[in-house]
Amino acid sequence: MGRDEHLRLLASRLGAGVDLHDLDHLTVPDTASARSAEEICRGASSESLANHCFRSYAWGALLGVRDGIAWDAELLYVASMFHDLGLTDSYDRGGCFEQDGAEAAREILAVLGWEPARAETVAEAVYLHMHETTDYDTPEARLLDIGTAADVRGVRTDELDGPARELVLERFPRLGFKEHFVALLEDQARRKPACVVHRYLYEKGAAAQIRAAPFES
Predict the structure, then answer these.
(1) Mean per-residue pLDDT for 177-192?
(2) What is the pLDDT of residue 24?
(3) Cα separation of 68 and 18, whole Å?
(4) Between the CA atoms of 92, 97, 98 and 100, what dihedral angle is there, to the nearest 10 degrees?
(5) Which sign does the torsion angle of CA 202, 214, 140, 48 carry?
(6) Residue 69 burial (CB < 10 Å; 0-12/13-18/19+)?
(7) Which of 2, 13, 54, 89 qualifies as a cystine partner to 164, CB 3.0-4.6 A?
(8) DSSP state at residue 166
(9) Which domains does the chain show, CATH number per domain?
């Protein structure tokens, strides 16, 4: 089964929660840039972290359809693939990881021939997923925020029925994601105490929230 078929099946499992006329929004874009972004994500990331990126896209897309949000599938998919590049050895430049990831996204997309404004939409979404989004931000930034919150802390996953949740988890298993992600964030916070990740961990209790998410690992 191809990637598009997986997400279409997910949508069908949601029944009345999804307008089946909006299924095109759930497909993974079959473009050269999307494929390149996926390859870069897989090449730089552990399998656990890469699967988090795929799940973040799936949760964001499914909840976006539920909320009636229109978005550009390629933009959201590429942003999802790139949003944690700053956590990887290849793209950690010593800055706050969301900023490093945003800068990497701009550079990669420039090489791929993207228009600056379109690349900036991806970079902004990558940066904002560690900050607050509002209704004034792009739909791609809002859905990446929603998708990552769902996968990291379980936010709104109760709005997706059991079969939909299980199919995403079967397709992209978590592979000990909770402890792996906590370790990545703790490393960032130790080396970069001025970054927002430090405040999330030690003022907002992010590690406990991650471990309490309604997933086994």
Answers:
(1) 98
(2) 53
(3) 9
(4) -30
(5) positive
(6) middle
(7) 13
(8) H
(9) 3-175 (1.10.3210)
